[in-house]
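Dear colleague,

Thank you for sharing your sequence with our group. We've completed the structure prediction you requested, and as agreed, I am returning the results in plain text so they can be pasted directly into your records. Please verify that the sequence below matches your submission; if there's any discrepancy, let me know and we will rerun it promptly.
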Amino acid sequence: MEKKELAFQSFERNQGILEAINKLLIHLKLEQKGLEIKTDIAEANQARLFIQEFLSKLGSLVANEQNFGSLAGIDMRYRSLVRKYMEAKGKRRQFKSLLFRSSPNEILSLLQADGKAGNDELISSLTEFRKLLSDHGFSDLRELIGNI
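Please find the predicted structure tokens below.
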């Protein structure tokens, strides 16, 4: 597959997960403040499921890389994202949330939990993950349109 095509697919994937993260973060923050939630609950739940699927795949890819040193069967842009996540886990000063201290599986538990028990940790983790995804998306954009 062509480099630009992979960058485009990666950019689309990133935009989808960023949209889901933003929807869920808005919902969680409004809920946390006790404000009236005008966002669609079904949309927030759909975003939650999308994030769960994404983090589940990320978790299994990270486990493969750690256990076997291999990320076979995925494109190079996805591989790059997995490696950026693993590198970020080592940057404890910059990435302090549960997602980067532990594993995506910990966040999956919070996403599946009913209630507000882990919402602070979930908000923190999704906010930091959003930063990582945005950085990854910028490298896709550079590939697609070059340096401006």
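Summary note from our side: DSSP finds six helices and no strands in the chain.

Kind regards,
the structure core
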